[in-house]
Amino acid sequence: MKKAELKKLLKPMIKECIKEVIFEDGILSNIVAEVAQGLGGTTLVEAQQPARPSFEDSVDRKALMEQQREAASKQREQLLSSINADAYGGVNVFEGTMPLSKGGSISNEPQGQGPLSDVDPQDPGVDISGIMGLAGNNWSAHMK
Known about the structure:
By secondary structure, the protein is mostly helical. 53% of the residues lie in helices and 0% in strands.
Protein backbone atom coordinates (compact mmCIF):
# COMPACT_ATOMS: atom_id res chain seq x y z
CA MET A 1 0.00 0.00 0.00
CA LYS A 2 1.35 3.39 -0.96
CA LYS A 3 1.83 6.21 1.51
CA ALA A 4 -0.79 8.36 -0.22
CA GLU A 5 -3.40 5.58 -0.05
CA LEU A 6 -2.66 4.96 3.62
CA LYS A 7 -2.93 8.68 4.35
CA LYS A 8 -6.22 8.84 2.45
CA LEU A 9 -7.64 6.01 4.60
CA LEU A 10 -6.30 7.09 7.98
CA LYS A 11 -6.84 10.85 7.82
CA PRO A 12 -10.68 10.79 8.07
CA MET A 13 -10.59 8.27 10.92
CA ILE A 14 -8.02 10.24 12.90
CA LYS A 15 -9.94 13.47 12.27
CA GLU A 16 -13.14 11.89 13.59
CA CYS A 17 -11.39 10.54 16.69
CA ILE A 18 -9.84 13.92 17.49
CA LYS A 19 -13.18 15.70 17.06
CA GLU A 20 -14.85 13.17 19.33
CA VAL A 21 -12.25 13.63 22.07
CA ILE A 22 -12.20 17.42 21.83
CA PHE A 23 -15.93 18.07 21.65
CA GLU A 24 -17.65 15.13 23.36
CA ASP A 25 -15.22 14.50 26.21
CA GLY A 26 -14.97 18.19 27.21
CA ILE A 27 -11.28 18.58 26.37
CA LEU A 28 -11.95 21.78 24.40
CA SER A 29 -13.00 23.72 27.52
CA ASN A 30 -9.80 22.58 29.27
CA ILE A 31 -7.69 23.72 26.31
CA VAL A 32 -9.40 27.14 26.27
CA ALA A 33 -8.91 27.48 30.04
CA GLU A 34 -5.20 26.67 29.78
CA VAL A 35 -4.71 29.09 26.88
CA ALA A 36 -6.51 31.85 28.78
CA GLN A 37 -4.40 31.14 31.84
CA GLY A 38 -1.23 31.19 29.73
CA LEU A 39 -2.10 34.64 28.35
CA GLY A 40 -1.81 36.04 31.85
CA GLY A 41 -5.47 36.83 32.23
CA THR A 42 -7.07 36.28 35.59
CA THR A 43 -10.31 35.15 34.02
CA LEU A 44 -11.57 31.88 35.39
CA VAL A 45 -13.11 29.53 32.90
CA GLU A 46 -15.11 26.72 34.42
CA ALA A 47 -15.25 23.51 32.47
CA GLN A 48 -18.74 22.23 31.97
CA GLN A 49 -19.26 18.64 32.91
CA PRO A 50 -21.57 16.63 30.70
CA ALA A 51 -25.02 16.39 32.18
CA ARG A 52 -25.39 13.16 34.12
CA PRO A 53 -28.76 11.51 34.37
CA SER A 54 -30.36 12.01 37.74
CA PHE A 55 -31.21 9.15 40.05
CA GLU A 56 -34.89 9.51 39.20
CA ASP A 57 -34.13 9.23 35.47
CA SER A 58 -32.16 6.01 35.97
CA VAL A 59 -34.93 4.56 38.15
CA ASP A 60 -37.50 5.50 35.50
CA ARG A 61 -35.39 3.87 32.78
CA LYS A 62 -34.95 0.71 34.83
CA ALA A 63 -38.67 0.54 35.50
CA LEU A 64 -39.42 1.10 31.82
CA MET A 65 -36.94 -1.60 30.77
CA GLU A 66 -38.47 -4.01 33.28
CA GLN A 67 -41.97 -3.29 31.97
CA GLN A 68 -40.80 -3.86 28.39
CA ARG A 69 -39.11 -7.12 29.39
CA GLU A 70 -42.27 -8.32 31.16
CA ALA A 71 -44.45 -7.36 28.19
CA ALA A 72 -42.16 -9.22 25.78
CA SER A 73 -42.16 -12.28 28.05
CA LYS A 74 -45.93 -12.22 28.33
CA GLN A 75 -46.33 -11.88 24.56
CA ARG A 76 -43.89 -14.78 24.01
CA GLU A 77 -45.82 -17.00 26.44
CA GLN A 78 -49.14 -16.16 24.76
CA LEU A 79 -47.68 -16.94 21.34
CA LEU A 80 -46.23 -20.26 22.46
CA SER A 81 -49.42 -21.28 24.24
CA SER A 82 -51.52 -20.48 21.17
CA ILE A 83 -49.16 -22.48 18.95
CA ASN A 84 -48.98 -25.43 21.34
CA ALA A 85 -52.75 -25.61 21.86
CA ASP A 86 -53.45 -26.27 18.19
CA ALA A 87 -50.32 -28.17 17.19
CA TYR A 88 -50.40 -31.97 17.10
CA GLY A 89 -53.84 -32.17 18.67
CA GLY A 90 -52.60 -30.72 21.98
CA VAL A 91 -49.99 -33.49 22.41
CA ASN A 92 -46.53 -32.45 23.62
CA VAL A 93 -44.25 -34.26 21.17
CA PHE A 94 -41.14 -33.42 23.22
CA GLU A 95 -42.45 -34.80 26.50
CA GLY A 96 -39.83 -36.88 28.30
CA THR A 97 -36.99 -35.96 25.93
CA MET A 98 -33.59 -34.63 26.99
CA PRO A 99 -31.37 -32.25 25.03
CA LEU A 100 -28.26 -33.63 23.35
CA SER A 101 -25.12 -33.57 25.46
CA LYS A 102 -23.06 -32.45 22.47
CA GLY A 103 -23.59 -31.90 18.81
CA GLY A 104 -21.56 -33.32 16.00
CA SER A 105 -19.85 -31.35 13.32
CA ILE A 106 -20.44 -31.64 9.61
CA SER A 107 -17.61 -33.46 7.84
CA ASN A 108 -17.01 -36.08 5.18
CA GLU A 109 -14.65 -38.00 7.45
CA PRO A 110 -15.89 -40.34 10.17
CA GLN A 111 -15.49 -38.83 13.62
CA GLY A 112 -13.85 -40.65 16.49
CA GLN A 113 -15.56 -40.95 19.82
CA GLY A 114 -14.06 -40.21 23.21
CA PRO A 115 -13.80 -42.72 26.05
CA LEU A 116 -16.81 -41.20 27.82
CA SER A 117 -18.92 -40.51 24.75
CA ASP A 118 -21.50 -43.14 25.69
CA VAL A 119 -21.82 -41.97 29.35
CA ASP A 120 -24.82 -39.85 30.26
CA PRO A 121 -23.73 -36.29 31.12
CA GLN A 122 -26.15 -36.33 34.05
CA ASP A 123 -24.40 -39.40 35.56
CA PRO A 124 -22.97 -38.37 38.97
CA GLY A 125 -20.04 -40.80 38.67
CA VAL A 126 -18.27 -42.52 41.58
CA ASP A 127 -18.10 -40.90 45.01
CA ILE A 128 -14.45 -40.70 46.08
CA SER A 129 -14.95 -38.45 49.12
CA GLY A 130 -13.98 -41.26 51.53
CA ILE A 131 -10.81 -42.38 49.73
CA MET A 132 -8.53 -40.66 52.24
CA GLY A 133 -10.05 -42.69 55.08
CA LEU A 134 -9.20 -46.00 53.38
CA ALA A 135 -5.48 -45.70 54.02
CA GLY A 136 -5.78 -44.23 57.47
CA ASN A 137 -3.09 -41.89 58.73
CA ASN A 138 -0.21 -43.89 57.25
CA TRP A 139 -0.01 -42.45 53.72
CA SER A 140 3.78 -42.54 53.77
CA ALA A 141 3.66 -46.36 53.63
CA HIS A 142 1.54 -46.19 50.48
CA MET A 143 3.88 -43.72 48.84
CA LYS A 144 6.79 -46.21 48.78
